[in-house]
Design brief:
The complex is a heterodimer.
Chain A: H1 4-9, H2 11-44, H3 48-63, H4 66-79, H5 86-112, H6 115-123, H7 128-158, H8 170-181, H9 184-213
Chain B: H1 2-42, H2 45-60, H3 63-73, H4 83-108, H5 112-120, H6 125-155, H7 167-178, H8 181-210, H9 212-217
Helix pairs in contact in B: 1-2, 1-4, 1-6, 1-7, 2-4, 3-4, 4-6, 5-6, 6-8, 7-8
Classes of the chains: A mainly alpha, B mainly alpha.
Chain lengths: ~220, ~220
Amino acid sequence: MFSIPVFLESFQPLFWAARYTLLISVLGIGLGLVIGTLVCAARLSPYPALRAFGGLWVSFLRGVPLLVQLLVFYYSLPVIGIDIPATAAAVICVGVCASAYISEIWRGAIAALPRGQTEAATAIGMTPRDTWIRVILPQAFTLSLPALVNELILLVKASSLVSVVGILEITRASQAQAATTFRPLEVYIAAACIYLAINLCLAALGRYLEHRTAV
Amino acid sequence: MDLIEQYGPMLLRGFGVTVLCWILGTIFGMALGLVIALVQRYAPRPVRWLIQVYIEVIRGTPFLVQLFVLYYGGPLVGLRLDALPAGLLGLTIYGSPYFAEIFRSGFRAVPHGQIEAARAIGMAEPAIIRRILLPLGLVSALPALVNFSIILTKETVILSIITVPELMYQVSRMSTETFRYVEANLVLALFFWLLVETISRLGRRFERRITQHLIERT
C-alpha cells in the first residue's frame, strides 16, 4: 500500500535532480528565444528562400515528436564527430525544438499589433530599422510574455524526456530511486508533485504577467 | 533491402499499434473530456473543485511521469495492466483535461440567447444539451479538437518507453539489433513529419467543410 514515509523520503534525491530539470528548461527557453527570433525574422523577411527555410524549420520541428528529435540528435553527434556533454546536447535539442514554437508566438504577437503603430512610426519619419527595434519588438515582447511562460511550462514537462538519453533530472532520478527502493508508486507520485509545484508557480507567474500586460 | 524484408512486418505492426493508440486515445480522451466538461457545467460546486484539481494535476505533470505512476506504480495498489492497455489508459487520462477545456470553451461560445430561447419554448435540459449545446458547441470547438488530436499523435511515441510495441519501440529494437541508430531515427523523424503534415492538411480540409455554413452566412 501507499506508504507516507517512503513517499516523503523520496523527495530528497528528486529535489537535487530538479535543478537539472530547471537548468535544461531555462537554458532551453533562452536558446529557443534566440533561435526563435531569428527564425521569425526569416519567416517575415522579403526573401522567398529565407521564408521557405523558416517555414520548413517550423513545420519539421513541430511535426516530429521531441523524443525522436532527441534520439536523432543524440545519435548523430558522434557520427559527425562532435563530442559534447549529454546535458549540452539535451539543452540544444530542447532549445531548437522550442525555437519553432517561440517563432510562432512571436509571429502571432507581431501580427496582433495594430497596423497604425507601424504607420505612425513611418509617418514621424522613423527608419524601418528603428520602427522594428523601438516600436514593434518591445510591444510584441510584452504581448507574448504570457505565451512564453506557457512555453516554459511545456518545456519543464518536455524535459522529462531527456531522461531517455541518461540525464539525471527528476524523471531519471525517480527511475533510479524506484529501482533501488522497489516503491515506484510513491517515488513517481513524488516526482509528479515536484513537477506540479514547479508548473503551478510558473502558471501563477503567467497569470500575473497576463494581468499586468492586459491594459 | 534485407533490412526491409527482415524488419518490414515488425515496423508495419508497430505503425498499426501507433495508429490504434492514436485513434483510441483520441476517442476515449474526447469522451472523457466531454463528460468532464458537462459535469463541470452542471455539477454542484465541490464536484467542480475536484474536477478542477484533476485538470491542474494532469496538465501540470509530464505524460511520461503519469505513465510511470500508472504502469509501475499501479500494481502496488492492485492495478495490474499490460503495457498496451496501460498506455491507452494513460493517453485517455492525459488527453481528457485538454479536451475538456476545449469543449468548455466551445460551450461558452454558444450564444446564451439560444439556450434561453430553448428554455422559453419549454425544452428539457437534456434536450437542450443534445440539440443546442452539443451541435453548436462542437462546431466552434472543432479546430481546437483537430489540433489537439494531432498533438496526441506525437505523444504516442512516449508509450515506447513503457514498452508498448508501437512504431518507435520497434524502430529502437531494430536499431539496437543493426546498430543503425542514426538512419533508423532519421527515417522515423521524416515519417512522423509526413504523417503529421498529412493529418493536419486533412484536418484543415475537414474543418473547412464542417464550418462552411458559418462562413457562407457572414
